[in-house]
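Subject: for your reference before the review

Hello V.,

The reviewers asked for a structural picture of the protein, and I figured it would be easier to keep everything in one thread rather than splitting it across files. Below is the amino acid sequence we used in the manuscript, unchanged from the supplementary table.
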Amino acid sequence: MNIDSARKKIVLQVPRYWTRNLEELKSVVETLKDYVGYFYTGSGFWTEFGPLHLTKLIHNWGGQVFLPLDLDDSVTEISSALQACRRSKVEMVSVSTTIGLEYLEMAMEGTKKLESWEDPNNAFQSSIIANLLPRFMEGSRASSIFGQNDRVMAAKFAGWVEKAGLNGMVFSAAYLDLFKNNGFAALKKIVFDIRPEGQRPNTKKNSIVIAKAAKNGADMFLICHPIIDYASGKISIEAAERIAAEIASNTPSKKNHHGQNKNRLHGDKASGQVLQNSQNAEISSVA
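And here is what came back from the structure prediction:
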């Protein structure tokens, strides 16, 4: 993989506490727009400035947007919000799997109907991603209290994502082994709980080295530190380039998915197979 393609796989999480106003956010975007793929701004930003206004500003500054709406509302509200994102040309948006399979399916179907009259190919569909895990399973719990119940839940949510027709999922890199070489191979995998080679893990969670995540099938990498330093807020182009190089040198060449899709599992069958594969791997490792 070339370095430019690797840069596009980086989703930069912009911390609200180090970008206290729009001028500081503008500085981050203009400095890093050529070194990362997307800028991920959370609720701290868009509660104050509005998500679609922020999207317009980031576009004006030359960046692309990953908008984590994490919608957990009625089907009508979700479909309408996704439509607003499409009209504002948001490059990638996430919704929450906690609303359940039925709502995910209806929301996606509603989005198709709403946009079909002016977007017959439903191109925006390919940018809708699911946050795979509910809040209580994210972050430190996902990586340090990694129990069998969590793995069952992860496989279940992934089945919903696939069955509802979403394009991919955001989840802790600690779960990558669940989805490697199985029925979910075609879904885009966006991972957090990652760190560059040589950086010590955060004391609160066992993050995964980027090289390992890339080798295990991660497609995009949601990260903040050390591109934006947690302690000082300093922006580092050098850190972004090191991460891009690590991604480029460790990402396997893409295989043709046509053969895989002929035997691809769907929905609940796929999630059951993922869990079975995981359990077999654990048994083999113990033996």
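For the response letter, the relevant points are probably these. The CA atoms of residues 153 and 251 lie 27 Å apart. Residues 267-286 form the longest helix (20 residues).

Happy to draft the paragraph if you're swamped.

O.
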